[in-house]
Amino acid sequence: SAVISQKPSRDICQRGTSLTIQCQVDSQVTMMFWYRQQPGQSLTLIATANQGSEATYESGFVIDKFPISRPNLTFSTLTVSNMSPEDSSIYLCSAPAAGEYGYTFGSGTRLTVV
Amino acid sequence: DAKTTQPTSMDCAEGRAANLPCNHSTISGNEYVYWYRQIHSQGPQYIIHGLKNNETNEMASLIITEDRKSSTLILPHATLRDTAVYYCIVRTNQGGKLIFGQGTELSVKP
User: Fold this and answer.
1) Minimal CB count within 10 Å: which of A83, A100, B66, B71?
2) Cβ of A97 under 8 Å from any chain B Cβ?
3) pLDDT tens digit string along A15-66?
4) In what order do the strands lie in the sheet with B84-90?
5) Chain B residues with CB inside 8 Å of A30's CB?
C-alpha cells in the first residue's frame, strides 16, 4: 500500500500567520484527502484534492482559509491561512492504498496557534 | 452518505475477544463497510473492509448481517496495544471519500 510522508510533524505558530503542510506519496494516486482533527474529536474532512483541477471543499471549509495545491500525482500541500487559536488541531492527509484495500494516512501535523 | 452509529466506549480484558458493533441501517447496496483504528497521536490505520460476506485477515474479522444494516468487528485476542479509537465507516460512492463518525474508544485492560 502507499506510504505517505507528511511534514512538519508539529509546529507552533503565531496568530495571523500561515502554515503550509506537505504530503508526499510514494506512488501515483488520483485523489488525496485532507482532514482536520480538533482536540478530543474525530476526523473531519476538509477537502478532496485532484491533480489538474481545483480541490473540492466540504461544507464549512473555504479555499481562502485552506488553499490546497496538487501539482502532480504524488504531492499535495494544505495551507492554513491567517491562523487563530481555533485552528489548533492535527491535520492529516490521506490517499487510496493499492486496489480496494483502504486508505493510507500520513502521520499528521500537530498545529498549535498562540 | 450513510451514517454509522457506534458505542462511545468499551472495555475488554487482555486476551479475550473484543467485539465492536456498528449500525449502518441506511447503507446502499454498493457501499462498503470499512474499519479503521487510531492509536493516540497517530494517523488512522486500516483494519478491514467488506461488502456482504464476512471477512477475516491477520488483524481482525468482520461480520456483516444479512440485511447489511449492522456489522461487528472482532479482535480475537485483544492485547494492550489494541487500545485505540475504532471507526466504522461506510464508504460513499461519490469520490470515494471517507467520512468519520465519533468511533468507539476501546480500552484493553490487563
Assistant:
1) B66
2) yes
3) 999 999 999 999 999 899 999 999 999 999 999 998 888 899 999 999 999 9
4) B9-13, B104-109, B84-90, B33-38, B45-50
5) none
B29 confidence band (pLDDT: 50, 70, 90): confident
Phi, psi of B29 (to 5 degrees): -60, -25
Residues of A in contact with B98 (CB under 8 A): 33, 45, 94, 103
Nearest-CA distance from A18 to chain B in Å? 23
What is the C-alpha to C-alpha distance for residues B109 and A4, in angstroms, rounded to an integer? 32
Average pLDDT, chain B: 92
Yes or no: say if A7 and A108 are a contact pair by the CB < 8 Å rule. Answer: no
Which residues, 6+ apart, have CB-to-CB distance to B35 below 8 Å?
B20, B22, B46, B47, B48, B49, B60, B62, B73, B86, B87, B88, B89
Q: How far is B35 from B71, CA to CA, in rounded Å?
A: 10
- Whether the CB of B99 is below 8 Å from some CB of chain A: the reply is yes
HSE, CB side, 13 Å, CA atoms: give it for residue B25. Answer: 2
Closest CA to A21 of A65, A89, A78, A101: A78
Per the CB < 8 Å rule, is A33 touching B97? Answer: yes
Chain A CB contacts of B104 below 8 Å:
none
Integer CA distances (angstroms), B81 to A35, B101, B108, in order: 25, 22, 8
